[in-house]
Amino acid sequence: MNPLVGIIMGSDSDLGIMQAASEILKQFDIPHEVTIVSAHRTPLRMVDYAQKAAERGLKVIIAGAGGAAHLPGMVASITTLPVIGVPVKSSNSIDGWDSVLSILQMPNGVPVATVALNAAKNAGILAAQVIGSSDPAVAEKVRKYKEGLASEVNSKVQNLRSQGWKNEFD
Ligand code: RP5
């Protein structure tokens, strides 16, 4: 099947973080592609990728970058597809805030849905939710995933209780 989600990143050094987006999309059986597109070092490739993304059938783009992380915002400026930005704490990041703010502080009119620092897994889940808004089978997979999260927490509640920690709530 043609990819529905494009996962792009500024460098192969981002892959260790960004592969979490691919792993969760695999879990949801969502076809996706992974490649490198650098805003600063391959600007024409970035424009080409963003211009062709919708016509190639992509529905969402996940873009990760570190340091002066312009890739998600620049891609969002070119395509009408939703762009999810993953700030990566990279070798050229001061402390990660540079990547976060570069991706987060977009001007009015050009939104990027920014996830937490290094949170590529959440980017994958958010992409699945976007796909799921028009695909009931994907929405059902996301619902089951979230049900799994709730039952993990419920087990922890029981564990705490069995260790003698009391609550008056339940
Ligand atoms: C950014 O610079 C990339 O997204 C990466 O996070 C960072 C470092 O890139 P490399 O020097 O490892 O290629 O553009």
Contiguous uncertain segments of 5+ residues: none
Structural class: alpha/beta
Radius of gyration: 18 Å
The hetero compounds bound to this protein are: 5-O-phosphono-beta-D-ribofuranose
In spatial order, strands of the major sheet run 2-1-3-4-5
Number of DSSP strands? 5
The fraction of residues assigned to DSSP E strands is 5-15%
Mean pLDDT: 98
Helical segment count? 6
**Topology order in helix (H) and strand (E) letters:** EHEHEHEHEHH
End-to-end C-alpha gap: 47 Å
Helix content: 40-55%
Dominant shape: globular
Biggest beta-sheet profile: 5 strands, parallel
Outline the structure in words.
The longest helix has 27 residues, at 136-162. Helix 1 links the parallel strand 1 (5-9) and strand 2 (32-36). This protein is an alpha/beta fold and 170 residues long. It starts with a strand and ends in an 8-residue tail after the last helix. The chain has a five-stranded parallel beta sheet, sandwiched between helices. The chain is built from six helices and five strands, in the order E-H-E-H-E-H-E-H-E-H-H. The model has no long low-confidence stretch (mean pLDDT 98). The site of 5-O-phosphono-beta-D-ribofuranose has 13 residues, from strand 3.
